[in-house]
């Protein structure tokens, strides 16, 4: 059973450019969330996609956009790159499970894409 | 966005010692997750908690969902060198779909 996969592994871009990152969720998962992790910090929520729509968004500008495809895979697009966008971008997949007494919600991460903006 | 407070920020312990760390929030959560992250990799899910007071183990790891629903605790017993990494807590409320992450606890195990 393949886990969450992300591509590319590393990416170097110049300020002002645009970038697209890709994610394939764990088998059986229908929800994809994207996070930005700066060096030495915890992941920060960018947005979540479910049923091909953005379901919730964190405190990130409109330069960050995304898409989810019918096969549940997802893309993260960042326009007009800034130096401060340099970070590890993590994709996480999840699906609400049916526990005995309450729904369960486990979120699994991919290895991340290291983006460097110069 | 909201970030949870984790303590301690870093720990240096001898192999074989037990480890305790905690995570606190100003908000009530209905789900707590604990992750371990190693350099250059994504976080790996260790334990999931769904009910106040719940105590869940995964091998040498034990986590608890605080009674107030604003905190969670992770204990590691008899630490070994491969426990080295950064441990993150993550909480989710029933009013949203996002997880808020803690600031991380960096663990170093000295052989």
How would you explain this protein's 3D organization?
The complex is a heterodimer of chains A (118) and B (111). In chain A, 0% of the residues lie in helices and 56% in strands. Chain A is built from no helices and eleven strands. With 111 residues, chain B is mainly β. In chain B, strands 2, 4, 5, 9, 10 and 11 form a six-stranded mixed beta sheet that branches. A five-stranded antiparallel beta sheet of chain B has the order 1-3-8-7-6, with no helix packed on it. In chain B, a hairpin with a 7-residue loop joins strand 9 and strand 10 (100-101). In chain B, 36% of the residues are buried. Classes of the chains: A mainly beta (118), B mainly beta (111).
Task: Please sum up the structure shown.
The complex is a heterodimer of chains A (118) and B (111). Chain A is mostly beta strands and 118 residues long.
Measured between the Cα atoms of the first and last residue of chain B, the distance is 38 Å
By secondary-structure content and strand pairing, the structural class of chain A works out as mainly beta
Instruction: Give the helix level of chain A as a range of percent.
Output: under 10%
Instruction: Look at the structure and give the mean pLDDT of chain B.
Output: 94
Main sheet specs of chain B: 6 strands, mixed
The overall strand count of chain B is 11
Tell me the Rg of chain B in angstroms.
Answer: 13 Å
Using only CA atoms, what is the Rg of chain A?
A: 14 Å
Q: Pairing-aware structural class of the strands and helices of chain B?
A: mainly beta
End-to-end Cα distance of chain A, whole Å, is 37 Å
Oligomer: heterodimer
* Run of helices and strands of chain A: EEEEEEEEEEE
- Fraction of helical residues of chain B: under 10%
Q: How confident overall, as mean pLDDT of chain A?
A: 93
Low-confidence stretches of chain B: none
The low-pLDDT segments of chain A are none
